[in-house]
Known about the structure:
single chain; 436 residues; 2 domains; nine-stranded antiparallel β-sheet
Amino acid sequence: MGRLKTHNYTTTCETIDGIWSARKYVNSSGFDPSLFHDADGRKWFLNMRWNHRGKGTGLNPANDLFDGIELQEWHPERGLMGEVATIYLGSDLGLTEAPHLFKQNGWYYLTIAEGGTGYDHAVTMARARDIRGPYETHPQKHLLTTRFSSDSPLQRTGHGQYVETAAGEVFHTFLCGRPLPGPRGPFCALGRETGLAKCVWHDDGWLYLAGGGMVPPLALAGADRLPDVPISRMFSERLPTEFQWLRTPEPARIFALTGRSLRLIGRESIGSWFEQALVARRQEHHSYSASTAVEADPPNWQRAAALTTYYNRHKFHAVLVTHDLLLGRVLQVVSCLGDWPGEALTFGPTVALPVGLIRLEVRVDGLKQQFYWSRPGEVPQPIGGILDASIISDEGGRGEHASFTGAFVGMMAHDLTGQGWTAEFLNFDYLPLQSA
């Protein structure tokens, strides 16, 4: 019952890049499952428990939906065994999820996420002598959080695991965001990123950040940063690994690689819940440009090929090669400005296009973005005005707790007649830029 259905499975493989086994069902009581392998060979399955019953029914009054952490013994062949134990209800911050167990010096340590994926996000720790509890909470409650430090360049820190190297160094991973200031408050176009913080064990048997406090540093001492390099892709026989597509296990319905191009097979509109021909890569920098050369001659206004900055069906900007009854082949800018659940569209200017290959480009600089177009060898010229790039972010539209995957930039095609009209994209360039 309720709005969330969570089914948990296991799958195994001898190597991480090998062929994984068929899934085995485990349970459906909540999400964020994890396995703990104890020193005695026993295995334990953890997950948060989802409570659909409404306000006042949960075991943690901070948020009734998140109803504590469950633990049950699990066997690879026999599945779940024995009784389910609720081992931890969480702190007063609530939204207790993402449990992970590890063992150190006779203690079972539980690391969990709390506060949701927004600006109250935190990693909380607890420990017990017995795996089933009772668990006591960390003396400072959270191992790491930025919820009290709005001036930190890292925000929304939470969800992580303990890591110990062969050399004995200890770290804790975490998810985070690097927000920029925007017209409606801070926004994270890059989504949830992964961080790593050096930690130390204190004499009280608890883990702490090496630098003290609860705010992880922006940079990890001794780690070298990889240089930002432009990435230029020509589409041949295989889709480059950074590209992703939406929702379908049947990619042959939405694209094909011809040897000279990425052929997108127009499906439903860019605002569809269902089948979209959208192939895109993540935005990895606050400022960048992306461009593609497209061959497309839509026979009517129901077909289009586009370059898009995309978050989801109610947060996107796109420049479409389409058709106008009076002008013929045209470019048109279209946006959905975070309008949910209505998904109202905003249309920009329409520009008549000459025949032949067209280069489309977008330049993003923080909270601003601009589309450009040109014929081969010509200087790109802008189409439309400067657009609000802060909408294409976790905080855009429904807000921080509804979105956390980050913005994408890529190519799309639609055919609203359902006949599968196609467009050819010859390349895709992604260039990191310095902020203006």
